[in-house]
Request: fold
Amino acid sequence: MELEVLKTAISNILKVDPNEITEETTFLGDLGADSLDVYQIVSGVEEELNITITAEDVEKITNVGEAVEVIEKALKNV
Reply:
């Protein structure tokens, strides 16, 4: 579920096909996202799932799999 929500947010912000996104997809290299894009994506996920992700955690994210882990961690803290 977390991966699908994340894929939707990535697709909406970066205008990419969600079917091309895997857990190994990197934000910078594969998607061409900058740090502001990542914050916008995370913000969309936070709103959708009603969670809060710390800026410290966001800064550590380099690929989609790591983002899913951060989302799962936030969901456990709700």
